[in-house]
Amino acid sequence: MTNRQLFALIPAYEPDARLTALAEQLARRAFTVVIVDDGSSASCAPVFAAAERCATVLHHAENRGKGAALKTGLASIASQACAPYTVVTVDADGQHRLGDVLRVVTEASAHTDSLVLGSRGFQGDVPLRSRLGNAVTRLVYRLCSGARVYDTQTGLRAFSDALVPELLAVEGARYEYEMNVLMDCARRKRPIREVRIETVYLDGNASSHFDALRDSWRIYRSILRFSAASLCGFAIDYVLFCALSGATGLIAASNVAARLVSAVVNYSLNRRMVFRSDAPMRRSAVQYALLAAVILLCNTALLELLSRAGLALWLAKLFTELTLFSLSYLVQSKWIFRKEQKQYEKA
Fold first, then answer.
1. In the prediction, which pLDDT does 188 show?
2. CB-based contacts of 49, cutoff 8 Å, min separation 6
3. Which of 174, 298, 315, 342 is deepest in the core (most CB within 10 A)?
């Protein structure tokens, strides 16, 4: 770590004097501090002016979101810093202890291929919305990526210069950006390491600008859109299956016919509305067909097994579809409709 330049990147919106104290602490520990004022009001000007004594302060003319602020800071660092260096992102409200910042940076400097998270244990006096929010995002991330991360919402993250181009290419301007970074790491098979840090919430986390409804929608919208598209496809599949099997008595044939119709609808919805994929249509269609064939085989086999075991046909169908839902999402998001990675070039 001693041979690497250290940068502390702090996105700030409507900060108070704690920002100045944080910047001074970090500067005294040999960090080059970069603060991004994300369109704060004029009343915060004295805070930023005080911080400029020990930090570089960049300004957005209007509020653009935490993700946009982080990318502004990263682009500035990338344009002037010489490798090797390590960057740590720190929240402006003073809820990250200096000792924890140093431990996360040390881990990232030792493992330059990894994204290192300062992971909170969520023990003690933790606001209910924070405890539940992280539990939900942890589950969603697990389902969507297949990877395990305990604290998906931590703002204390460290990484080497090697990761900066990747992070600049990740989509998202607001709170969803941090979840998108984790998803991108999973797609790239980028190692994610967690360092346990102290769980600190000052004044019941009153300084947070996270909007529970709006920002949660941004974070979860991909899986919610996928769920809606899958529900539409399932409705078509289910109605056709029940009608055909009732008319013919042929379970396997009815399941195949219903699935072929619903698959065409589901592919179109997922490509255009859920993942908004730029992958070539011919390639993604072939890959989707292969996935659909595998899912269909598993679906039909499980359906036959459950029905022969005496389970009611309608219940066997519901259980089968729910069982294969997560597998389908994981393969489509990471393989079929993955985003084409954009290359970042220094200005």
1. 85
2. none
3. 174
